[in-house]
Amino acid sequence: MSHRLTSVFLLEIGAAVVLLATGLVGVRSSTAAPPAAPSWVLRGAYSPSVRPSNFVAKIDNRFFPLVPGTTFHYRGHSGDTPQTDEMEVTHRTKTIFGIRCTVVRDTVSERGNPVERTFDWYAQDKQGNVWYMGEYSLELRHGRFVRASDSWQSGIKGAKPGIIMRGNPHPGDVYRQEFYPPGGALDQARVLGSEAARTVPYGTFKRVLDTVEWSPVEPQLERKYYVTGVGEIEEQVVHGGHERFQLVAVTH
Length: 252
Prior knowledge:
- By secondary structure, this protein is mainly beta.
- The protein has one domain (10-43, 55-251): YmcC-like fold.
- The chain is built from no helices and 17 strands.
- The strands form 2 sheets. It has a 15-stranded antiparallel sheet that branches. Strands 1-2 form a two-stranded antiparallel ribbon.
- A hairpin with a 2-residue loop joins strand 4 and strand 5 (99-110).
């Protein structure tokens, strides 16, 4: 999922928009000019250390649990186009850097027909951090799925792993989620804090973790919301685009 609002304040300077705090005013997505890079964006050298001995067999991070056989069903839209997104935690694994990664298949569909398909590779360390080790992304062209340019695997052509979810997230935490400059995979995230409650078709949840994501390749601000024991329940582009998905069901 491209692969989204509570209290970030924006200051407009001419046509540029500069992120000053940690949230966004309002709940509407904007299709105006892309926002300038937030002040919290990480720059400079990036050299993450991943050792096989520091990783565990299963992913049980409370905000991002990935139990094989589980499928998360989302419904929403990209622009004016209704879409669905199914994120299936498969029983398959892939070894990267000597680390056994869980394979997650993500399929975006329009009118019941798949238009995007991605195989994501995740692994969890002993500190509870869930690492994003790469993805094999496919996009529909002329009726056929072909490999997308932003596909990447840690250790190949300069690609490096990032963290998709902290083991113990705190407000203000900033981290790279992926790092593959040749393919434009450069997402970063910041933890904003928590909300008292949030409602999606799957239910109403309390104590929701709130994060914001940014990529210089596709400059937009995207809010994501996570719940303990469930995972991601909603994502929404709040500046620089018009996209939203909400969790409607979880099957096993």
